[in-house]
Design goal:
The complex is a heterodimer of chains A (421) and B (292). By secondary structure, chain A is an alpha/beta fold. Chain A has 19 helices and 14 strands. In chain B, helix 3 runs parallel beside helix 7 and helix 7 packs antiparallel against helix 10. The longest helix of chain B has 34 residues. The chains are: A alpha/beta (421), B mainly alpha (292).
Chain lengths: 421, 292
């Protein structure tokens, strides 16, 4: 008989489920002191140059005391980390700390797998949550409780190829402030040649969520009970992008190939993470600038990147140790270090005011943009079925933009999504 | 006191114990567990809930599921005939007494032992629309560039090409073994009768090779239904579900959407398809043609 891979995978899951019964531990018990050394794990999803500064902070913390040893474990991209964490949680052996992307927290919140940090914050006199920017912490707040602390927070900003602006006879300091202006600028740039595009767009969840908001649309109603992707506003937003691609003004290309295009200098404008500043510095040889991505009638950008969460099914000792590390990781000094080395935002006001960050902002004003638009940042939806919903929206978008299908297919998408809510 | 026969029996059981244990743990138990889960609603985090055949009825009324069935069938239809026919041609060529034949055999078999994950990444670059090798080759013949992995329909063609590249060597080697089992004197007799090369292939090789060809075809169908790695790495089932084959569909539902029951139902469906072809192979494969 022939096996099917799926059957094999299923076995692993089931074995995990059986084990989870044995792995249950008491939750929420507060302790105030460690009597013997503990080792805890923190799972993160930032590879390459972003993991190095994090490991430095971890090493520093480990050397500063002898009761707690923190092991940082790179688990792959955001989605992979989420999958692995889920499996480990079901198996009853999760790490006590894990970095999760803003939109992938839903299933953990809905199934009560995270420990709210409020009790730790209250009992720790030295920790001042008011020092954190409230637009950033809203991304880790669910049902009025704070579940995570920010690590690599970002917003999408508009990266401009200033050389292409000049070639097209445009003033590189005059960036677009509305989608209509973006269209006109992109049109002039794409007229430079057949392989040159004014704007690169792609269907990454946080980018299209920003787009929808900018056109006045939202994906879900207030209580996340109904999907509104077939609203007039969202149809208009999708139609606008469709037109940009159909007119040859924008190119629809995501993933690695998209980054390759950015680096090749064939793209006039592209919206990418705050954290991509470091990438641009390393990979781009032309003159580039950064502008706010608050286009559209409503000024809005989605909050991106990740927060670090504390996971249930761990011991009180681990949780105590985790809190010690967490407040060390997010203290002013370490935020400054992390931000200076990655380009991600600091989330503490005191870190932003620090001489180091101020010096960076003064020396390279491109870092300022993300802070300036932060007041327009909104938190991503935390719906349990988000991964599938995101796929359905992306699929509709791909068909609308690449195949020229009418935006009315969103009616079908909305009803498919409503079945998942 | 045990009789010798009983002792032999016990000994025999010990000898087959390792494969039986591995099979039981990794194949039989998971099979029944999947069947069990397919009757439940389960998102991993909360307890299972029995829902009867709801997952199946939902599956059979889902457009996305039938899209995956269709994509899988197209993938099978695209890979099977080409890999078998091409495999046969290569096998016949390799069966000639040409110089350096073992070198060619190795070259043909190399893709089979190459890691699919690594190969898929290389193919991603080859299929790249702007700087990829394949579009460059097309342009040499004055043909327009293709979008390959960026287009819903062409992406399936691209993964079919990779599937063919990966499997043709395996089929060729099996067919070659079959060819070498055909006694030489049939050809000698045919030569004396004045038969041409082509006639010999048509009248001797193909009929006498039919059982091996049948085996290769069935194995290829099964392998094509199970295609997964190249899809995960090259397309993730996209664009817009254009390459969303059944194994990827169920993987996604299980591990990204956390619908274990639904995914298990799809797994059972896939299992039944593959099982049918296995039975076919057992039933007809053995008693087709004999040489002596």
């Amino acid at each position: 008989m022939k096996k099917s891979t799926a059957v094999l995978l299923t076995l692993l899951i089931v074995m995990g489920a059986f084990l989870s019964g044995c792995g249950k531990k008491e939750e929420g018990v507060q302790i105030t002191e460690l009597t013997e050394p503990v080792t805890i794990q923190v799972w993160y999803s930032l590879g390459a140059k972003y993991s190095a500064p994090l490991e430095v902070i971890i090493n520093h913390f480990n050397e500063s005391q002898d009761m707690i040893t923190v092991e940082g474990v790179y688990q792959g991209g955001y989605a992979t980390t989420q999958e692995k964490l889920l499996t480990a949680y079901v198996a009853g052996e999760p790490p006590v700390l894990a970095q999760l992307e803003q939109s992938l927290v839903g299933s953990f919140v809905a199934n009560d797998a995270l420990i709210p940090l409020d009790t730790f914050i209250k009992s720790d006199k030295a920790f001042d949550i008011k020092d954190f920017n409230k637009y950033i912490t809203q991304g880790a707040t669910y049902n009025k409780k704070l579940y995570g602390l920010p690590i690599n927070v970002s917003t999408p900003v508009l990266y401009l190829n200033r050389d292409l602006f000049r070639k097209a006879g445009l003033d590189p300091d005059k960036y677009p402030t509305t989608w209509e202006e973006a269209y006109d600028i992109a049109k002039k740039i794409s007229d430079l040649g057949p392989d040159i595009y004014g704007l690169r767009i792609y269907n990454s969840g946080w980018i299209i969520d920003s787009l929808f908001h900018q056109f006045g649309g939202i994906i879900f109603d207030k209580n996340n009970t109904q999907c509104l992707v077939n609203s007039k506003e969202i149809k208009e937003a999708m139609g606008f992008w469709q037109k940009m691609v159909m007119d040859g003004v924008a190119v629809y290309q995501g993933g690695k190939d998209g980054s390759t295009m950015d680096a090749s200098g064939a793209v006039g404008m592209v919206m990418r993470s705050t954290g991509s500043i470091a990438w641009f510095k390393d990979n781009v040889s032309f003159d580039w600038g950064v502008a706010p991505f608050t286009l559209g009638s409503t000024k809005a950008v989605s909050l991106g990147g990740g927060n670090i969460y504390m996971i249930k099914k761990t011991t009180p000792e681990e949780q105590f140790a985790a809190w010690q590390f967490l407040q060390n990781l997010t203290n002013t000094e370490n935020q400054v270090y992390w931000s200076a080395n990655t380009g991600y935002m600091v989330s503490r006001k005191s870190a932003k005011e620090s001489p180091e960050i101020q010096a960076i902002l003064k020396e390279d004003p491109r870092y300022n943009v993300t802070y300036d638009q932060l007041e327009h940042a909104f938190a991503r939806p935390t719906v349990e079925a988000w991964p599938e919903i995101e796929d359905l929206i992306q699929e509709a978008m791909t068909r609308i933009i690449l195949e020229g299908v009418s935006v009315d297919i969103l009616d079908q998408t909305a009803s498919d999504i409503n079945e998942l809510l | 006191m045990l009789k010798k026969k009983q002792l032999d029996n016990i000994q025999g059981w010990f000898f087959i114990a390792p494969p039986v244990v591995v099979f039981t743990i990794f194949i039989f138990i998971p099979m029944f567990v999947a069947l069990f889960i397919s009757l439940q609603k389960w998102n991993l985090l909360s307890p299972m809930r029995f829902v009867g055949l709801a997952n199946y009825s939902k599956m059979f009324s889902s457009g996305h599921f039938w899209n995956s069935v269709m994509v899988s069938l197209l993938y099978v239809a695209g890979t099977v005939p080409v890999t078998v026919v091409l495999g046969l041609i290569i096998a016949i060529l390799l069966n000639q007494g040409i110089r350096g034949v073992s070198f060619y055999r190795i070259m043909i078999y190399l893709p089979v032992i190459t890691s699919m994950a690594a190969a898929a990444i290389v193919f991603q670059y080859l299929f790249e629309p702007n700087i990829g090798l394949f579009n460059h080759i097309l342009s040499l013949f004055g043909l327009p560039p293709m979008q390959w992995l960026n287009d819903r329909h062409q992406a399936l063609l691209a993964v079919i090409i990779v599937g063919i590249w990966k499997r043709v060597g395996y089929n060729a080697i099996i067919l070659l073994a079959g060819l070498q089992a055909i006694p030489r004197y049939y050809y000698e007799a045919a030569t004396i009768d004045g038969a041409s090369r082509f006639q010999m292939v048509r009248k001797i090789t193909i009929p006498l090779l039919s059982s091996v060809t049948f085996f290769v075809t069935v194995m290829q169908i099964i392998a094509s239904f199970k295609v997964f790695t190249s899809i995960v790495i090259m397309t993730e089932g996209g664009p817009a579900r254009g390459t969303d084959v059944l194994p990827y569909f169920l993987y996604k539902n299980a591990f990204q959407y956390h619908k274990m029951g639904y995914a298990s139902a799809a797994a059972i469906f896939l299992f039944i398809i593959i099982f049918i072809f296995t039975v076919l192979q057992f039933k007809f494969g053995e008693k087709k043609v004999h040489y002596q």
